[in-house]
Each structure stands twice: as C-alpha cells, then as structure tokens.
Design a protein that fits this description.
Distance between the termini: 54 Å
Radius of gyration: 19 Å
Structural class: alpha/beta
Shape: globular
Strand content: 5-15%
CATH superfamily: Decaprenyl diphosphate synthase-like
Order of helices and strands: HHEHHEHHEHEHHEEH
Mean pLDDT: 93
Number of domains: 1
CATH architecture: 3-Layer(aba) Sandwich
Low-confidence stretches: 6-14
C-alpha cells in the first residue's frame, strides 16, 4: 500500500469541487464560520470493503485533504477535526502505532500542499503524550504554515473534552496562586480563555459521520449552542458534496442560541 499521496491540483481543478448549480444554493453570509467534525467510521469502512483497518485510516486521512479544500470554497474560517481521542489509546498497540505513523506522514507530506492552499495548521489536546516524532512533525508544520490565512485546520490529538476542562481548571488554580480569583470573576468568558480552542471560538456546526448519535467527549464546553448534523456516511466515503449538504442544512436552520 502506498503512502499518503500529495494530490496537488491546480486552482482550476479546485474550483471544480462544486458545480455552479450547487454553489447557487449556498449563501456565504449564512454559512458556518467554524465547523467541527467527528471523523468516525474508518474501521467500519475498511471492513465493509474487505480491507485491513489500517487502510481505513489511510483513506480517512486523504478525505480530510479534500474536505479542507471544499471548506475553503464555502468560506469556513476554522475546521476542527477529532483525529485521536484520549480514549483511543485503549486500542491495540499495533493499531495505535500505525495511526501515529499516519499522523507523522500526513504532517510531513502535506506540508507543501498546506502552504500552496493557504492552510494554517494547529492542534488541540494534551500533545505532550504524543510520540516525539509526531510532535516534531506537528511543530514543523505549524511553524511552516503559521502565516497562512485561508483556513485554520485544527487537529484534535490526544484530545478529550473532560481532560481539556480538567487542564483548564489546573491553569485557573495556578493563576489563583499568583493572584486570588474571586467567584464573581469566574465568568464563561474567563473560563473560555483557558480552553484549548480559545483563539478560534466555538463551532457553529458539529458534523458527525457514521450515524452515531453521541458526542464522544468532543468539545463538551464549546458545542453548547452548536448545530448538529449527523450523517450515516462513513468518514472515508465523506465527500465535499457531503460537506455542502451539511452546510446547506445549517443555513436553513434558525439559530436561537437559547431564545424563543
């Protein structure tokens, strides 16, 4: 099986992701600025296609490239994807090691493509627990793309919503040791500045593939008012048009944010 390909195409090809008829349905002013995706179903897709589980992870990584390009065309400013949860360490050592190798290859081989496409890469989660080779690749790609501005691609790696809140509380306690924090200061805005996602804000739209109806410890604080879109499509079969369907469903909704 070959490694992750670069799939570099020219601008004209990128603009053919959607037809003019499809784009006519889309209202950029009503589209989501921040989308979070739970990329679920890699292993099930592999089983359905009589392939080894690793092939599902490879294909899932390739799909992400196409979805990021499509998100740029739809005016998305930030795309946060659930790549590896704190619970995923419970999988077999062989599978975890293979996934880490895919992360490393993705970060290295897609670096030039991210530069070409204007993608700024970042990550959330407890990154200190990742293998050093993955940390090095992540840091180099972050640095190389730090001045890009078309879209923020945020990888949730060794991420869990509960763990994020736990780490935020730890930071608040350290701040309290330096300068006493009064109860009235513990506003939602104050707490949010200690979360991993502080610089990007909360997602407008949460997409989950594979049809599962749960949030699986992803962005527990941030999705309080996000619109949910669940599709039965498994992640390796998710296409830019599936993304467009989710965005069109989002723009058809009336976001009340707790109001009537």
């Amino acid at each position: 099986m070959s490694a992750i390909s670069d799939r570099i195409v020219d601008d004209a090809a990128v603009n053919e992701i959607f037809s003019s008829e499809e784009l006519a349905l889309f209202d950029r002013e009503k589209g989501p600025r921040h989308i979070a995706i739970m990329m679920d179903g890699n292993r099930r897709w592999a089983r359905l296609n009589n392939l080894c589980p690793l092939r599902g992870h490879w294909e899932g990584a390739e799909v992400l490239t196409d979805v990021v390009r499509a998100a740029i065309l739809l005016g998305v400013q930030t795309l946060t994807v659930y790549a590896f949860s704190t619970e995923n360490w419970n999988r077999s050592e062989t599978e975890v090691d293979s996934i880490m190798k895919i992360f490393e290859l993705y970060l290295v081989r897609k670096r030039q493509l991210m530069m070409k496409e204007g993608i700024r890469l970042d990550a959330i989660g407890d990154l200190s627990q990742l293998p050093l080779r993955v940390q090095r690749a992540l840091n180099r790609t972050r640095q190389a793309t730090c001045n890009n501005h078309k879209i923020n691609l945020v990888l949730a790696l060794n991420y869990g919503g509960r763990d994020e809140i736990r780490r935020a509380i730890g930071q608040i306690l350290l701040r309290h040791d330096e300068k006493k924090i009064m109860p009235g200061e513990l506003t939602e805005q104050f707490i949010s500045q200690f979360l991993d996602t502080n610089q990007w804000g909360d997602p407008d739209l949460l997409i989950r593939t594979s049809g599962e109806m749960r949030v699986s410890n992803f962005l527990l604080w941030q999705i309080s008012y996000s619109e949910f879109y669940v599709t039965d499509v498994l992640w390796p079969a998710f296409t830019p048009r599936e993304l467009l369907r989710a965005v069109l469903a989002f723009q058809a909704r009336q976001r009340r944010l707790g109001g009537e």
